[in-house]
Amino acid sequence: MSGTLLDELYKEIILDHYRQPRNKGELVNSTCSANGANPLCGDEIQLQVTLVDNVIEQIAFTGAGCSISQAASSMMTEFVQGRPISEALVGVLSFQEMMTSGVPSEVDGFDDIDALMGVAKFPARVKCASLSWKTLEQALDGNSTATTE
Amino acid sequence: MATNKSQSMTYSLDIEKIRRDFPILRREISDGKPLVYLDNAATSQTPVQVIADITRFYRDHNANIHRGVHTLSIEATELHESARRKIARFFNAPTSDECIFTSGTTESINLVAHAWGRQHLKKGDRVVITEIEHHSNIVPWQILRDEVGIELKYIPMLSDGTLDMDYASDLITTNTKLVAVTAMSNALGNITEISAVVDLAKKAGALVLLDGAQSAPHLKTDIQQLDIDFFACSAHKMLGPTGIGLLWAKMEHLTTMKPLMGGGDMILTVSMENSTWADIPAKFEAGTPNIAGAIGFGAACDYLTNVGMENIRNHEMQITQYAIDKLQRIERVRIFGPLDSKKRGGVISFNIEGIHPHDVGQVLDSDGIAIRTGHHCAQPIMSALNVPATARASFYLYNTEKEVDKLTEALNTVIEYFG
Q1: CATH of B50-306, one of 3.50.50.60, 3.30.43.10, 3.40.50.1820, 3.40.640.10
Q2: For chain A, which terminus, N or C, has the lower number of CB atoms within 10 Å?
Q3: CB A67 within 8 A of CB A14
Q4: What is the least distance, in Å, from the CA of A12 to any CA of chain B?
């Protein structure tokens, strides 16, 4: 297997997040949460957030699914932790845009996340990468479920 | 478990000759990798003979059927009806009049659920299906249950994916009006013991619907010998085009069924007040049908007959056993369904421990290998196996052991890649 295209999808940093996910686990004092699923592929994520004065003090996820969905979840939590809701929502939009355009975003702190831009070339995988962001949006909106189907 | 016979295997099929009939098998995927097509349970590839018949229709005979007095219309009608006769012969239906063209298995089953079910089923009547059904043989019955109040019961599967026939005999009671069952699971490949199901149904006085979508392409189907009431299948899984399929039903049932769709070609007379129906099968084929599709379906039946269904089955058993034996030698691979190729068609569902099927499928694609990943439109099976999804390799008459070798090599690479 050579696959320059494949290496673009599975960048080392993505596999690193997949193998050692950040913020994986459960929070005891979460203030909002949401569950997300891609029923067709079998990706699942449960997201918990602790908000203090509109700032994401803590965030954690559990779940199972493909490497892209789980790595993207890990990266997303790393990015939004400690940020105000407004910045997290900018992240949601910027990530969506990156999945459509395939161009890295300008957002400060998106460093690892930019590695996911290769996913844009694999239409079947965009929903895997987007799941955690959609779930975050639902959690912050006060909804409890998200789906990218 | 059978031994690995690969070294001494002699095929009754000339696979290389067959492969030359399928131009798509010469195509390359990412970076010049030859296509290894192992997604035949989803759809099969199309031989030049079928493509030629479809093309010839559009080039030389295209017209609407059953209408004009002009030459093209007469030719088109004859081609369409001769396809129906070919298909009837292929499945040994008593008469081609009992063969209704549909868009595929899904429409066929829905036609039975709605045109027969609404007519004959009432609140409290039982319909028995199984846990291993494709969604297309589950959802129409759930819709009917919600509308009419029928009881919908499932024959459960055992751990190897075969049906729990002891449980089935308790389930198929005298208030059971229909047993609707797949002849072969699309997710696991296991072959249903149809005669056992038919026996139980007959004893209870119930009719039998056989979903042949997965079996018709791979096993010889003799409708009369099976002693069933309804049979559904799709052309695109058996070398034909998409968008065309078959519902065969006994004439005694067809005569009691009301048409599901009204329109052109299905009426005898229409007045402002009411209409009378055309004869069967036209009664169930409203509107201009998929004429080229029917012709392609007939051509596919011809192709399969020429190769011989027994030869195809033997080839698939050999290649499936070869694949099972090789996959079992890869540590971390778990195969679902029976391990004996006599009990299954050319379908192998598997997972690599710790690696999601989606990632498996993606890496295989970069090697030109096409497999299916996901729930295979059979979520109850996934729940019973307690997995969210599986990877599935499925074979057909043109697949070779060399392709199986490529699959297993690539799976080893997947394991190295994701660790």
Answers
A1: 3.40.640.10
A2: C
A3: yes
A4: 10
Any A CB within 8 A of B363 CB = yes
Domain boundaries, chain B: 6-46+309-418, 50-306
- Closest CB to A64: pick one of B388, B410, B419: B388
Residue range B148-167: average pLDDT?
95
pLDDT mean over B195-199: 97
* Mean pLDDT score of chain B: 94
Smallest CA–CA distance, residue B218 to chain A, in Å, is 27
Sequence-distant (6+) residues with CB within 8 A of B149 are B122, B123, B124
As given in the structure block, the two tokens for residue A48 are 């918990």
Establish if B356 touches chain A: CB-CB under 8 angstroms: yes
Residue type at B369? I
Q: Give, in words, the CATH class of B6-46+309-418.
A: alpha beta
Structure tokens at B94: 């008593």
Query: Nearest CB to B358: which of A3, A41, A44?
Result: A41
Tokens found for residue B243:
């968008």
Known catalytic residues of B? 377
Contact A42 B417 (CB under 8 A): no
Distance spanning both ends of chain B, measured CA to CA: 30
Mean pLDDT is lowest, of A5-14, B188-197, B285-294, for A5-14
The band of A149, judged by pLDDT with boundaries at 50, 70 and 90, is low
pLDDT category of residue B5 using cuts at 50, 70 and 90: very low
Can you give the pLDDT at residue B15?
96
**Helices and strands (H and E) in chain B: how many:** 15, 17
Q: Which residues of A touch B363 (CB under 8 A)?
A: 1, 3, 6
Q: What is the pLDDT of residue B8?
A: 42
pTM of the model: 0.91
CB-CB contact of B159 with B132 (8 Å) = no
Q: Which DSSP string do the residues of chain A spell out, in sequence order? A: ---HHHHHHS-HHHHHHHHS-TTBS--SS-SEEEEEEETTTTEEEEEEEEEETTEEEEEEEEEE--HHHHHHHHHHHHHHTT-BHHHHHHHHHHHHHHHHH-S----TT-TTGGGGGGGGG-HHHHHHHHHHHHHHHHHHHT--EEE--
pLDDT for residue B11: 55
